[in-house]
From TrEMBL:
Keywords for the protein's UniProt record, in alphabetical order: ATP-binding, Cytoplasm, Kinase, Nucleotide-binding, Nucleus, Pyrimidine biosynthesis, Transferase
CDD domains: ADK
Organism (species): Marchantia polymorpha subsp. ruderalis
NCBIfam families associated with the record: UMP_CMP_kin_fam (TIGR01359)
The EC number(s) this enzyme carries: 2.7.4.14
Cofactor annotation remark: Binds 1 Mg(2+) ion per monomer.
Names of required cofactors: Mg(2+)
Protein name in the entry: UMP-CMP kinase
Chain positions recorded as a ribonucleoside 5'-phosphate binding sites: R144, K165, I166, V167, G192, F193, P194, R195, R235, R246
Length: 314
């Protein structure tokens, strides 16, 4: 990050603050998130040219430090196309046609794993991690860890989870960013997030990242209820009252997110009622392309661009 870049980022932060003064709520929450992220990302961004291990994974978003682009509001979303553009694409039907993953890019690659509570997201994520080198970030697990850590937000998060409500985006996005920044790989399975349109917009604004695709586990409520009641993990929300509230929230708030990505041709719908093994077989073709070519070439190219100054956007 050059000093001109820093000056530019500060200017943009100022203009976001001015928007906030004019009561633009999205700009206001973005500005808060961005300020936090500046603090998170800044110490690492000094190592831009000193090798991949020292570069924050998120520094690579859009070929530059994420907080810089977030501050600049230059969210030119990824042009990566994954699979067919037709909506409501069933994974079974599409088979190998999922293959258009941009493995020459060095930016972090994100897959959102969505579906109702108990549809089997966590179960399948574990299998994908074992076989395809992704990092699994469960937003619910991150929130539960935050409660355990004794964070000042702990009580609020606990109450929201008990009541089946969606925790404010500021909290969840910050936890996700921190986990992404600490990760040693750039392939992320983000499980159980975004849960509503506000979550989605907050993540997009702050990271500038668009998911490669959305894995949507389609499962009837009766099956999900049965699975949740048998989960036996001692969770405060796996009781019939909270389960019913979670279903309502899923239908009212989360389905519109799945629909949004559907319209962009990014939703990969999977029949989640099959056995664990059958579901995994169905989704595997979606992940094979990620193994086909290392992203090192793209990464090296990005580092060279930084060396020559051509990737600096001020
Ligand atoms: N395909 C499946 N068939 C039957 N039970 C399943 C299947 N997938 C997951 N389960 C079980 O259902 C429960 C909920 O699964 P989980 O992966 O935790 O769902 P989610 O992460 O979507 O809430 C767990 O007890 C899990 O072992
Ligand atoms: O992005 C998220 C993810 C989870 N939660 C909260 O955490 C609970 C449990 O979510 P998780 O994904 O762990 O459980 P699932 O819905 O898959 O059973 C949800 O009901 C919400 O209260 C949230 O607020 N935002």
């Amino acid at each position: 990050m050059t000093s001109r870049g820093r000056v530019f980022a500060r200017t943009i932060l100022r203009s976001i603050s001015q928007y906030r003064d004019h009561n633009v709520p999205a700009a206001a929450s973005a500005a808060n998130l961005i300020k936090d992220e500046v603090n998170l990302a800044r110490p690492r961004s000094t190592g831009l040219l000193s090798g991949t291990s020292e570069r924050s994974v998120l520094d690579k978003a859009q070929g530059g430090p994420v907080w810089f682009y977030a501050a600049a509001g230059l969210m030119a979303f990824s042009t990566t196309t994954v699979g067919s553009a037709s909506p409501h694409t069933d994974a079974e039907e599409k088979g190998k046609d999922f293959g258009k993953i941009d493995n020459t890019s060095s930016r972090p690659r994100v897959v959102f794993v969505l579906g109702g509570p108990g549809s089997g997201k966590g179960t399948q994520c574990a299998k994908i991690v074992d076989n395809y080198g992704f990092i699994h970030l469960s937003a619910g697990d991150l929130l539960r860890a935050e409660i355990k850590s004794g964070s000042p937000n702990g009580n609020m998060i606990q109450n929201m989870i008990k009541d089946g409500k969606i925790v404010p985006s500021e909290v969840t996005v910050k936890l996700l960013l921190k986990a992404m920044n600490e990760a040693t790989t750039d392939k992320f399975l983000i499980d159980g997030f975004p849960r509503n349109e506000e979550n989605r917009l907050a993540f997009e604004k702050v990271t500038g990242l668009e998911p490669e695709f959305i894995l949507y586990f389609d499962c009837p409520l009766t099956e999900m209820e049965k699975r949740l009641l048998g989960r036996n993990e001692g969770r405060v929300d796996d009781n019939i009252d909270t389960i019913r509230k979670r279903f309502k929230v899923f239908i009212e708030s989360s389905l519109p997110v799945i629909d949004h990505y559907d319209k962009l041709g990014k939703t990969r719908k999977v029949n989640a009622t099959k056995t664990r093994e059958e579901v995994f077989k169905t989704i595997e073709p979606l992940f094979k392309p990620f193994l086909e070519k290392s992203s090192c070439d793209g990464l090296n190219q990005t580092i060279m661009q930084y060396s020559s100054g051509s990737a600096v956007r001020d």
